[in-house]
């Protein structure tokens, strides 16, 4: 079985263009949370040399002058397109492991003539026709090699988005083309350490003494090196591991200075966390609330507080009571808080739950609460986000995420689907 | 989204109504699982999208203003089928017609001119319309319009 890495090109931008024909082939950039920075660009925007990560406020005028379209991150759309993307991939591969919103590793059997090009070309054509999403396919002996192959598929135009590293006769030639910074698993600092030792590319990393690499990076480094040498060390894991913590946090579009606003924010994140827990069929045993000022602030402040729950729960009312109590320990009025969040910890699935020795427990009451949560979740799913929520979250709060350029949830809300003028 | 509408699958009649005492239902062995519209209207959930119809150029095909259109992007557009096309930056719904070597997008309404696809540089067939769902009785309460 051969390993493949499939990933979407300019995924967020491609999703927007897929459901909005008015964008055409014009340059397009997608902004991060709170419309902070550029986090995605389509090919046309890349050609205009608009750099990634640029703060939006700095380049807004330039974007207007160049006629670049701008969109805020539309996670409802991207999440849905990602689900469809993975569903189609499952039909074309033996097994897949979802790696990120737009990437998946997969296993595929080579045909008798060993040529995977027809399969790869068909997969590219299918995803482009069915979803409007262009992809790159990298094929290799293992995950690390598939990653490298994917990079080569994307960056060398003649490969037309497909590269099979496993059947090439000159693997060394290709490994040498991969700069050390672009090797999967080598971060910025490690890349610098490598360069100091004269290791500039994947080939040199492969051939460097193992004991030196192990001393610096441990077994993770050895695994990477062995994969570059052609051994498969990282298995494909189709089932996602159960989460051990769930965090919901956001930056505020403007700093928070009042306890009331802070509590509204924490309440909102707690409600979202509660939904996530119920969706994951997990129960939290402890909650942490944290907040901080901007990292660039002259008077930096950062604080967190944790509370254990008597009994594991995913009932939002119980989670709220705990998290709101914690806000008083975390909040300090003299600081401009720019980011906060809640972390649900010590997660258990329903088969491991225990009752509390001293707390009263009513079977009927518990069943009623479960039914209430289920009903609220169903109403929100059916009629739109937050159609039923807790008053503690506030109504149209001033600090909520800025998304001035948000496109409609064209594939997930029936009231926002595209119009076809006939 | 199509393949998450599990609430519309009113299938398994057994589990909920547990009759604690009494005779088992004679129908038990013959129970059908029930009709799920998702199964019948959506063949390829991952490639199926919904669009809202505005206008009457396809009225003779029974597609009316306000209808909910089910569009399957995985189907191969054949001559004679009704397609959603992106023409000059907008979605349009027309019948794809192959006439003497030329491809046209024809309206099912004599008041509209056919679109000769050779004239437009910015055209692509977005998907094939499979069903058009027409509302007969509007709901009296709308939570969000």
Give an account of the 3D structure.
The complex is a heterodimer of chains A (422) and B (145). Chain A is of the alpha+beta class and 422 residues long. In chain A, 40% of the residues lie in helices and 21% in strands. Chain A has 13 helices and 14 strands. In chain A, α11 packs antiparallel against α12. The longest helix of chain A is centred in the middle third of the chain and has 21 residues. Chain A is globular. Chain B has a 7-stranded antiparallel beta sheet, with no helix packed on it. With 145 residues, chain B is mostly beta strands. Helices cover 3% and strands 32% of the residues of chain B. β14 of chain A pairs parallel with β1 of chain B.
Task: Briefly say what this structure is.
Chain A has helices at 11-19, 43-47, 56-66, 75-92, 117-131, 143-155, 171-177, 188-196, 202-207, 210-228, 259-279, 316-330, 363-383, and strands spanning 2-8, 28-31, 38-41, 69-72, 95-100, 103-108, 135-140, 162-164, 246-256, 282-293, 302-313, 337-345, 348-349, 419-421.
What gyration radius of chain B follows from the Cα positions, in whole Å?
21 Å
Total strands of chain B: the figure is 7
Order of helices and strands of chain B: HEEEEEEE
Main sheet summary of chain B: 7 strands, antiparallel
Shape descriptor of chain B: elongated
| Helical content of chain B (DSSP H or I, runs of 4+) | under 10%
What is the helical fraction of chain A, as a range of percent? 40-55%
Mean pLDDT across all residues of chain B, rounded? 83
Q: Regarding quaternary structure, how should these chains be classified?
A: heterodimer
What is the H/E order of chain A? EHEEHHEHEEHEHEHHHHEHEEHEEHE
Largest interface: A-B, 32 and 36 residues
Give the low-confidence spans of chain B.
1-17
- What portion of the residues of chain A fall into strands of 2 or more residues? 15-25%
Poorly predicted ranges of chain A: none
What percentage of the residues of chain B does DSSP assign to strands (E)?
25-35%
């Amino acid at each position: 079985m051969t390993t493949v890495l499939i990933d979407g090109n300019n995924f967020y931008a491609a999703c927007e263009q897929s459901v909005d024909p008015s964008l055409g082939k014009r340059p397009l950039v997608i902004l991060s949370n709170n419309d902070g920075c550029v986090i995605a660009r389509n090919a046309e925007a890349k050609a205009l040399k608009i750099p990634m990560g640029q703060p939006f406020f700095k380049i807004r005028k330039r974007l207007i002058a160049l006629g670049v379209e701008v969109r805020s991150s539309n996670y409802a759309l991207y999440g849905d397109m990602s689900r469809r993307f993975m569903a189609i991939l499952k039909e074309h591969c033996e097994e897949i492991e979802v790696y990120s919103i737009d990437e998946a590793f997969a296993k595929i059997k080579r045909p008798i003539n060993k040529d995977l090009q027809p399969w790869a070309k068909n997969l590219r054509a299918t995803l482009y026709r069915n979803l409007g999403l262009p992809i790159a396919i990298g094929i290799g002996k293992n995950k690390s090699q598939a990653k490298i192959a994917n990079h080569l598929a994307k960056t060398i135009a003649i490969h037309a988005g497909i590269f099979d590293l496993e059947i090439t006769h000159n693997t060394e030639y290709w490994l040498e083309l991969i700069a050390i910074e672009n090797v999967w698993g080598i971060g910025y600092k490690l890349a610098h350490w490598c360069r100091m030792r004269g290791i500039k590319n994947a080939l040199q990393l492969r051939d460097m003494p193992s004991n030196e690499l192990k001393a610096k990076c441990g077994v993770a480094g050895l695994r990477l090196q062995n994969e570059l040498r052609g051994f498969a060390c990282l298995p494909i894991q189709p089932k996602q591991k159960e989460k051990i913590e769930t965090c919901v946090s956001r930056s505020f579009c403007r700093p928070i200075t009042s306890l009331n606003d802070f509590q509204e924010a924490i309440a909102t994140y707690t409600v979202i966390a509660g939904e996530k827990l119920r969706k994951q069929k997990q129960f939290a045993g402890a909650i942490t609330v944290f907040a901080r000022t901007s990292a660039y602030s002259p008077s930096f402040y950062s604080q967190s507080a944790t509370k254990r729950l008597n009994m594991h729960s995913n009932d939002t009312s119980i989670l709220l009571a705990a998290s709101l109590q914690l806000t008083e320990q975390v909040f300090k009025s003299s600081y401009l808080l720019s980011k906060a969040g809640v972390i649900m910890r010590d997660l258990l699935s329903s088969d491991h739950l225990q009752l509390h020795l001293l707390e009263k427990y009513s079977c009927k009451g518990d069943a009623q609460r479960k039914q209430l949560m289920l009903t609220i979740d169903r109403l929100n799913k059916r009629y739109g986000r937050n159609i039923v929520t807790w008053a503690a979250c506030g109504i149209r709060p001033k600090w909520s995420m800025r998304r001035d350029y948000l496109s409609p949830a064209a594939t997930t809300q029936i009231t926002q689907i595209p119009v076809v003028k006939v | 989204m199509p393949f998450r509408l599990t609430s519309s699958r009113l299938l398994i009649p057994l589990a909920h109504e547990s009759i604690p005492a009494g005779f088992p239902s004679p129908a038990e062995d013959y129970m059908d699982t029930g009709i799920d519209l998702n199964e019948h209207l959506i063949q390829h959930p991952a490639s199926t999208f919904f669009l809202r119809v505005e206008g009457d150029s396809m009225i003779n095909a029974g597609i009316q203003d306000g209808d909910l259109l089910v569009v399957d992007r995985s189907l191969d557009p054949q001559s004679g089928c009704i397609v959603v096309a992106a023409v000059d930056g907008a979605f349009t719904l027309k019948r794809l017609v192959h006439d003497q070597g030329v491809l046209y997008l024809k309206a099912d309404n004599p008041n509209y001119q056919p679109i000769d696809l050779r004239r437009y540089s910015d055209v692509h067939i977005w998907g094939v319309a499979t069903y058009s769902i027409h509302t007969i009785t509007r709901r009296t309460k709308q939570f969000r319009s």
